[in-house]
């Protein structure tokens, strides 16, 4: 066992022979500051600090699994440029930002303060916007201005594989414009969220989101980018519906356009709430509120850029005329009974035929008309 005195003598001898070590009083050495300022001369700048023991070679905690998860999450985040930052553009941007995506915004009007409050960057110039090299260009413009806005974008400043997405209510028109204007190295995704700021204010759960992958480059990264964008709506609870643009427009003419048309008609009637509203009447008032809050440009676009809309207008007109004839026919029957009594008992009033189904020509073909005239 080595004694403290032997250590002391050894240290003193070493100091005398080498001159490298100063003389220390080992009996006074402790875990407190030295009593004399001359001791530990090479650490004189630390005289006011307490003694600290550090282990610089200690292993630091490292969660590799958390690192991989974080790295994967970052790889799925997109830079999305929203062109047209009105009510609907802001409505979608909130969800994008909430899920951790970066949002750039541009619009004709100045929405810089609103963008800042949401956590988005607003660009007044489209050149500055495109120089940010977004992964996705999302068009949230009106239907009638879509083509002019798309043609005005300086697409040469974008990455050659940028994904273009629209959210228009008419799909064949948007698809054709994209294919005509954009070079083939850009990807195209046509979508339609079948809801808006009013109908989606309480969440998007089970609300339909329609899309068609029109043109996607043959690279894994480009397929992954499309899926990452669609995942935004999946995570919000949307019911994802993949169908062609032509199928969408056919269905939308018989549902969305009819809904907007009836809402506009009821708006012209200036309906008011009453103290005895029924549930059905409340539904009509809600319909008026939902459709009237949309711009007329939207309704006009639904009519102008969906080739199936005119057929629905004609069907509505025929349906209203048929309903009037049925009403007046019953009234005529009541009057005749009052005039002629039982003389016409047992006679059945004619029943009007139902309207043909959607897609059935409402007017006879021209050749059939000519043949009937010849006879």
Question: What would your notes on this structure say?
Answer:
The chain has 375 residues and is of the alpha/beta class. The chain has 13 helices and eight strands. It has helices at residues 4-18, 64-75, 87-98, 112-118, 126-130, 146-152, 171-181, 220-235, 245-268, 279-292, 296-304, 309-340, 366-374, and strands spanning 79-83, 102-106, 121-122, 136-139, 163-166, 187-193, 208-215, 239-242. An eight-stranded mixed β-sheet has the order 3-2-1-4-5-6-7-8, sandwiched between helices. Helix 8 (220-235) links the parallel strand 7 (208-215) and strand 8 (239-242). Helix 6 packs parallel to helix 7 (171-181) and helix 9 crosses helix 10. It is elongated. Residues 14-32 and 365-370 have low confidence and may be disordered. InterPro entries: 6-PGluconate_DH-like_C_sf, Arogenate_DH_2, NAD(P)-bd_dom_sf, PDH_N, Prephen_DH, TYRAAT1/2, TYRAAT2_C. Residues 78-355 form the Prephenate/arogenate dehydrogenase domain. This is Arogenate dehydrogenase 2, chloroplastic-like. GO terms for molecular function: arogenate dehydrogenase (NADP+) activity; NAD+ binding; prephenate dehydrogenase (NAD+) activity; prephenate dehydrogenase (NADP+) activity.
As a whole number of angstroms, the C-alpha radius of gyration is 38 Å
H and E string: HHEHEHEHEHEHEEHEHHHHH
Instruction: Report strand %.
Output: 5-15%
Class derived from helix and strand content: alpha/beta
Strand order of the largest sheet: 3-2-1-4-5-6-7-8
């Amino acid at each position: 066992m080595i004694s403290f005195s032997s250590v002391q003598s050894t240290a003193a001898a070493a100091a005398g022979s080498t001159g490298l070590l100063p003389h220390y009083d080992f009996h006074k050495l402790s875990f407190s500051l030295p009593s004399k300022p001359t001791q530990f001369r090479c650490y004189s700048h630390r005289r006011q600090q307490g003694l600290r023991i550090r282990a610089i070679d200690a292993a630091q905690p490292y969660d590799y699994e958390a690192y991989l998860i974080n790295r994967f999450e970052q790889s799925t985040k997109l830079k999305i440029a929203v062109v047209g930052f009105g009510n609907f553009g802001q409505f979608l941007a909130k969800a994008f930002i909430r899920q951790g995506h970066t949002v750039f915004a541009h619009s004709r009007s100045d929405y810089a303060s609103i963008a800042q409050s949401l956590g988005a960057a607003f660009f007044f110039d489209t050149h500055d916007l495109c120089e940010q090299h977004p992964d996705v260009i999302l068009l949230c413009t009106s239907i009638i201005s879509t083509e002019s806005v798309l043609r005005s974008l300086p697409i040469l400043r974008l990455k050659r594989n940028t994904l273009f997405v629209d959210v228009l209510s008419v799909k064949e028109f948007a698809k054709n414009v994209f294919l005509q204007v954009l070079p083939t190295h850009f990807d195209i995704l046509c979508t339609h969220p079948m809801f808006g700021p009013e109908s989606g204010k309480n969440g998007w759960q089970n609300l339909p989101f329609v899309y068609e992958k029109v043109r996607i480059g043959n690279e894994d990264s480009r397929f992954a980018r499309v899926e990452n964008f669609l995942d935004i709506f999946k995570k919000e609870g949307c019911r994802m519906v993949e169908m062609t643009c032509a199928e969408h427009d056919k269905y939308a003419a018989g549902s969305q356009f009819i809904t907007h048309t009836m809402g506009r008609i009821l708006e012209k009637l200036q309906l008011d709430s009453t103290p005895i509203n029924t549930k059905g009447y409340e539904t009509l008032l809600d319909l008026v509120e939902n459709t009237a809050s949309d711009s007329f440009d939207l309704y006009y676009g639904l009519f102008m850029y969906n080739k199936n809309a005119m057929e629905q207008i004609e069907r509505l007109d025929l349906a209203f005329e048929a309903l009037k004839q049925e009403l007046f026919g019953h009234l005529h029957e009541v009057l005749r009974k009052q005039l002629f009594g039982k003389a016409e008992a047992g006679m059945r009033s004619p029943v009007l035929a139902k309207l043909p189904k959607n897609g059935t020509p409402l007017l006879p073909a021209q050749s059939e008309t000519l043949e009937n005239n010849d006879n």
